[in-house]
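User: Structure please.
Assistant: Input sequence and predicted structure:
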Amino acid sequence: MRKTLKKYYNELSIPMNERPLLPLLADGSEVIWLWGSGFAEGLAPDRFTREVLVIRTEKTEV
């Protein structure tokens, strides 16, 4: 079942002001990975995966 990003954020009770700060990866309009939630259904790496993208984040003081 597909959901809008807004609906998903609402279900997770993510405050509106935090939503623009959460990283995500998308292919066009389809979100394939969301920070804290993982991969979209059927898109997680498996034993046939040959390459992965590693993303590291740092918290910085503003």
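The first helix runs from residue 5 to 11.
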